[in-house]
Amino acid sequence: MNRENETLWTLKSEYVHRLAKQGLRVDNRDAFEYRDIEVTPGYVTRSPGSALVKLGNTTVLAGISMDVGTPFQDTPNEGVIMTGAELVPLASPTFESGPPSEDAIELARVVDRGIRESKAIDLEKLVIEEGEKVWMVFIDLHILDYDGNLFDASALAAMAALMHTNVPKYEDEKVIRTESSMKMPLRRVPVETTFAKIGDTLLLDPVLDEEKAADVRLTIATTDDGYICASQKGGSGALTVEEIEMIIDKSFEKGDFLRGILKDNMKG
Amino acid sequence: MGGKSEVPLLDKNGKRIDGRDLEELRPVKMEVGVLKKADGSAYVEWGGNKVIAAVYGPREVLPKHLANPYKAVLKYRYNMAPFSVDDRKRPGPDRRSIEISKISREALERVVMLEYFPNTMIDVFVEILQADAGTRCAALTAASLALADAGIPMRDVVAACAAGKIDGKVVLDLKKEEDNYGEADMPIAISPRTGEIVLFQMDGLMTKDEYMKALRLAVEGARKINEIQKETLKDKYKITNLSGGDNNE
Predict the structure, then answer these.
(1) Is the distance from CB of A195 to CB of A243 less than 8 angstroms?
(2) Domain ranges within chain A, ordered by starting residue
(3) pLDDT tens digits for A239-250?
(4) Rounded Cα–Cα distance for residues B207 and B48 (Å)
(5) In this model, does residue B249 exceed pLDDT 50?
(6) Does pLDDT of B166 surpass 80?
(7) What are the strands of the beta sheet with B169-172, ordered from one edge?
(8) Residue among A106, A229, A252 whose CB faces B204 most closely
(9) pLDDT, tens digit (0-9, with 9 covering 90-100), for B25-54
(10) In terms of Cα–Cα distance, which of B118, B138, B180, B147 is closest to B54?
């Protein structure tokens, strides 16, 4: 991380901690309140599915690409999901160009896990010829503006993009991108909710200043039918079993809130 | 990878494929000081997992610009040998091992007293020689032992263990077939003195009740692992300290 910023971060961190102790936040939100969320599906029209998500100032563009490839040997009757994330340098002074950083890899893998492990995509419907040819779903996350909580914004953008994806036609060994064969077959709606612990205070949806000041972060992915499908702790702090239990309850509640936004968006 | 279990993972008596009960750990063996060159080292055999960990440092920070004037830089490298799994693993770091290395390092940052060694680096290397699910837990367990063996001051010795769900039942310490065909996996690590959770991941499908049951079970498992860690460290001093003199921990 940028060394010259260290003093500044230390001062900000003390401020965030002081506020947290009084039950306050830098942007006057309640502890378990999301920032304003805007979802714009179909933001890029070249892609068979995309969505731009703004979570406060944090901006993530998710784009889906569809291609035909061979399935994995152990799952011959399933399509393939691949998720990547790029923390592009225009999004933050701390992002650098080059191969994906460990933060980018973790982000992509946690978003991937929420979608994969919930079996959100009906992968059996993406088989063209069993064991030979299947649809490959590439989910690419482009981080455009970084003001904290990339996990929730990215998972929401990925899901919004998938909900608006049309699977192209495949005829005579060719992908016809101008025509659609079906909507992306979806079975569940997973979303991710991220909490930060500052001192002894738990907060939902940390902004960048809170994220930097936090000792630990916990991301929970829930489904619309009452399951937890992924979890990931980050940061060098620790959590108690009781804190995790409390976060689980909140993440179902807030997950339903996020799913409500996705649903409204489908109508609009 | 979360496929349907075509093979039953539990028999009619509720026993698992290797004859274990639902809440039973696989056999675990540990040893410290197994490598000559390293400042500290440990070997952990955990069911079908064979893992070796080494610690170098505190030593000079490379590359130099990473040096921190307030505390030591902790590095953690989880690496799988190409022959550790059925299908050869391409050598070198892949996305999975980069993620595991990150969260394992964060777990250790909680307990290692990095503030004692500003402008230095502590390297933790873990090699998976043979994998049978639960390698990140075995690796972190070995890494903590190696750090203790290197004499690095720590607030606690981190212990790890996983719980999960197979055939609809919450179970402790999944082996490979259970991980592949089971429904969920939750690897965790604790700081045993406080009971806090320092590493935590989960994937698969679990209800809240199953999730909390798995979490509590994994914490209990990690506590058992910690008992073996403590015995292992004590054993080392039984052998080397023939005079029986004390060592102020």
Answers:
(1) no
(2) 3-267
(3) 999 999 999 999
(4) 29
(5) no
(6) yes
(7) A201-204, A191-198, A216-222, A228-234, B196-206, B184-191, B159-166, B169-172
(8) A229
(9) 999 999 999 999 999 999 999 999 999 999
(10) B147
E runs forming strands in chain B? 28-32, 40-46, 49-59, 73-80, 121-130, 159-166, 169-172, 184-191, 196-206
Strands A191-198 and A174-183: what pairing?
unpaired
**A24-28, B59-63, B80-84, B240-244: least confidently modelled range:** B240-244
Fold of A3-267: Ribosomal Protein S5; domain 2 (3.30.230)
Domains of chain B: 28-238 (3.30.230.70)
Give dist(CA B201, CA B234) in Å, integer. 31
Q: Name the residue in chain B with its Cα closest to that of A84.
A: B95
Contact A238 B106 (CB under 8 A): no
User: What is the complex's ipTM, to 2 decimals?
Assistant: 0.95
Which residue has tokens 């990925």?
A158
Q: How far is A118 from chain B (nearest CA, A)?
A: 6
Instruction: Tell which of A73, A101, A117 to mutate to test the B interface (max B CBs under 10 Å).
Output: A117
Question: Within an 8 Å CB–CB cutoff, is residue A122 touching chain B?
Answer: no
- B148 in contact with A, Cβ within 8 Å: no
CA A224, A226, A232, A236 dihedral sign is positive
Residues facing B161 on adjacent strands: B188
- Give CA–CA dist B178/B17, Å, rounded: 9
